[in-house]
Hints:
By secondary structure, the protein is mainly α. The chain has helices at about 1-15, 20-35, 45-50, 55-65. It is elongated and about 40 Å long.
Amino acid sequence: MKTAAKVFIIIGMICQFYLVVPLIIGILALKKLNTATKKSELTGMAIATLILCNVIAGVLMLCMKDQDLVPATSDSNV
């Protein structure tokens, strides 16, 4: 689901290349998708993506589960 959201964000950015806001929101959403560890971290960016960049990508981001995201690493062995 994470890959599908990335693909739809990129498609939205390509289709709306002449507008500045979808490009900025798309770049921020892609960065947030790579670094988020919990679903709650994606909620704000998912709503912004839903409204300003691509509807399908925003819905996919809102429907993601915690297992789809990057697991938090613990440095307890260091």
